[in-house]
UniProtKB/TrEMBL annotation:
Its main location: membrane. This is Multidrug-efflux transporter. Pfam families: MatE. It comes from Butyricimonas paravirosa. The chain crosses the membrane at residues 37-60, 72-94, 114-131, 143-166, 172-193, 295-322, 342-361, 368-390, 396-415. The keyword Transport applies. It is found in: Cell membrane. Coiled coil: none annotated. Keywords: Antiport, Cell membrane, Ion transport, Membrane, Transmembrane, Transmembrane helix, Transport. It is a multi-pass membrane protein.
Length: 431
């Protein structure tokens, strides 16, 4: 899962790297700002797929194959409809969205051109994440990785062809991404249907039983809310960043790719932890849950400390991957961001584990609460601190780790309160 989502990051990272090096600061700012919007839209679909995946894990762990197939059909229909509505909406409201994000006039046409093409790949994003969640729910995380690896290589190759040879500009980067997404999504769908006949939907499985619909809708919508609220907060901060001009936009565009790439493994560790907890919770394996919690905390902490040290020490060389050496202002702003936020990855690592744990024990609502605390703090502090002339844009950078740690405190407090009601011999029995 970690390798798969690291590869998935290459979709936009490849666009950002090639655009930043060959098309200039305005194009870098356009593609980077579009990334925040696309992450928000993708998070809605990813959250729905992750929520369904947790249900799949619980039913697979309990050995209820009939319920699993009904859930596959119901979730496919529900998330497919959401994808269709979302896709139509973004095409219709693309200009109001860009105005809401306060995109500067010299970046506006480039960002609009990029997004108009990228939006055509939203359906393929849904297909890939849906079948990846299904396979991961049954413990198969290798196959999604292979399909994604092929798509990433294709994306990079097409970026170079469309931008350097065909001279299509930012549209070329967008088309490269859409084509790569189509290959990974359709390919994984065909593979799953052919290789796992036990998951093929029969006519008798095509029933929208209220209990199944309710379970999928509630669980998926809560996980979706947790994912989308998190990224909606980032989108609101993106609008604030855009108001500081092209240099800050370009610096943030490059730095946030490094940032996302750095802590993405621990995010996926949290997702894998959620699947582990859900499968064992469904199977009633409480000792394995206790052991898993201990291993997860130690592993995530070691990883976060190691990555924080690397990002802090190599902030400038990392920025130079995306930004030409003569863009000194952009590089300086990006290094400042990375050294502030990168020093506190343990905060986000703990938060991802808490998200995964509460999803796994059928309490996804708590994940939403923690997300609201984290993002609400970040947005409020970002706007408040950046408005002080002596602090400025640095206040936006500091608001991020502060939000993480406040959410961690609440999540750990609730964890202790939850287990104070559980007997020593029956952990999670009363959850």
């Amino acid at each position: 899962m970690i390798l798969g989502n690291l590869l998935q990051q290459f979709y936009n990272i490849a666009d950002t790297l090639i655009v930043g090096q060959f098309l200039g600061a305005n194009a870098l700012a356009a593609v980077g700002s579009a990334y925040s919007l696309m992450i928000f839209l993708t998070s809605v679909l990813l959250g729905l797929c992750m929520g369904s995946g947790a249900i799949f894990s619980l039913q697979y762990g309990a050995g209820d194959r009939e319920a699993l197939k009904r859930s596959i059909f119901v979730s496919l229909v529900l998330i497919g409809l959401v994808t269709l509505v979302l896709n139509v909406a973004v095409f219709v409201w693309i200009d109001p969205i860009l105005r809401l994000l306060q995109v500067p006039e010299d970046v506006y046409p480039l960002m609009r051109d990029y997004l108009w093409v990228i939006f055509w790949g939203l359906g393929f994003t849904f297909i890939y994440n849906y079948y990846a969640s299904l396979l991961r729910a049954i413990g198969n995380s290798v196959v999604p990785l292979w399909f994604l690896g092929v798509a990433v290589v294709l994306n990079i190759a097409l970026d170079l062809i469309f931008i350097l040879w065909c001279d299509w500009g930012v549209k070329g980067a967008a088309w490269a991404t859409v084509i790569a997404q189509a290959v990974s999504g359709v390919g994984l769908c065909v593979y799953t249907i052919r290789k796992f006949p036990e998951f093929r939907i029969r006519r008798e499985d095509m029933c929208m039983k209220w209990q199944t619909v309710r379970e999928i809708a509630v669980y998926s919508s809560l996980t979706c809310a947790q994912q989308s609220v998190m990224n909606f907060g980032i989108l609101m901060v993106q609008g604030l960043i855009n108001s500081f001009g092209v240099a800050v936009m370009a610096a943030f565009a490059a730095a946030v790719k490094i940032d996302s790439f750095a802590y993405m493994p621990v995010q996926d560790f949290g997702n894998a932890f959620s699947t582990f907890i859900a499968q064992n919770f469904g199977a009633g394996q409480m000792k394995r849950i206790r052991d898993g919690i201990r291993v997860a905390v130690v592993s995530a902490t070691i990883f976060c400390v190691f990555i924080s040290l690397l990002v802090f020490a190599f902030a400038r060389p990392l920025m130079l991957i995306f930004v030409p050496v003569h863009e000194t202002e952009i590089i300086s702003i990006g290094v400042q961001y990375l050294r502030i936020e990168g020093a506190f990855y343990c905060g986000i690592g703990c938060l991802f584990l808490l998200y995964g744990f509460y999803r796994g024990i059928r309490k996804p609502g708590m994940s939403v609460v923690l997300t609201v605390i984290s993002l609400g703090t970040r947005v409020a502090l970002a706007y408040a601190l950046s408005a002080i002339p002596a602090i400025g844009v640095v206040g936006i950078w500091w608001s991020i780790p502060i939000g993480w740690f406040l959410a961690d405190i609440v999540g750990l407090w609730y964890y202790r309160r939850l287990f104070s009601r559980v007997t020593r011999s029956g952990i999670l029995k009363s959850v």
